[in-house]
Amino acid sequence: MGFNGAFREMFAPQKRSATTDGSYFGNYGGFFSLGSGSAYPMKPKTALKLSAFYNGVDQISNDIAKIPFAIYQKDGTNRIAHPDHPANILISTTPNSLMTSFVFRKTMAISYLIRGNALAKISYNASGYPVSTDFINWDLVQDIRIRKGELLYDVRGFDKPLLASEVLHFKNFSHNGIVGVGVITYAAQQLGMALEVQQYSATNFENKGVRQGVIQTDKTIENGKDKIIAGWRKAMGEKSPDRIVVLDDGFKFQPINITPQEAQIIEQQKFNIEDIARWLNIALHKIKSLEQSTNNNIEQQSLDHNSDTIQPHITNFEQEYAKKLCTPTELRDGYFVRGNMDVLLRTDMKSRSEAYARAVLTGWRSRQEIRALEDLNEGPEILGEYLTPVNTFTESQIDKNLKENGK
Length: 407
Description:
Shape: flat
Helix content: 40-55%
Structural class: alpha+beta
Distance between the termini: 80 Å
Number of strands: 11
Oligomer: single chain
């Protein structure tokens, strides 16, 4: 399957193979229909027409994409970076020949958030080292089944099933731990209602606020009703905002006034935004809804966003990366993948500076390490020493100082 083919099929309807023994699509098929069984059928391309939903997915996927990942090893109490590990370049800079790490992870995150699943094929060289991770459109996955204890992925365009060890499979919400469930599956009704409200507002705006109504007269009209209706429609169908209709011979236009229910539908738009934020587990201010935000609580909401919304996804990515890109021997030797969440503070100089100051003054980071985090060259050797607040000495430190001072 070429790149152009994958692009054309990005929003193609899903096609599933027949149910087979051990098929996870067969056993859980009702969970993967993207709300097609709902009164409001929903597809990814349709849902993204809602600005709040689009912006929420864009925000979360951007945060996942911009976090740098790297491979480390836990050696006793030390953490050793392994920039020369064959898989490190795949997760840090160049996952494949077509994408940067940001683009790859954003693409994966969008699929992961909307479809509940993101899949990539791992390619290996002759020595058995991973050399490429290529995005696979989830619509191309026809079945996921287990055979002889091995999980197999039937993917359109591949001659044989892919083994679980040959793919990166990021799963979001899941009922069985094998296949994820897209948020649209459960949010279809809410998103469908939001789209109807949006369409209602657009139609009302297009009609310049002129509503349906009736033309009244005290006279009895035997013939010509069709001409009157056609003339009214022609005049009101003009795009000009200066539309003028002349009614003579006692004719009057009586509009059908907006009902309280219809007025409430327009008011419903802001509640739809809140519901979309709940479905995506994202703070309202992140999708540009600031009615309930102040300068005092936005900072705390941003911290909550990092810990409650982004951190779980990063942990998910870290563990799948480590499981599939490190060998079993390396995992036993303490290798792991880490996404540096500190990057989310990069644009907030005040919060970043305060965090650095606390880290240095409490002694869990050196000034040399802070310089490295800011991509600065090493300073004098003394900056590598850890500071200890004088009012937080332990009892043994106090006893040592007393003895040294002869007391």
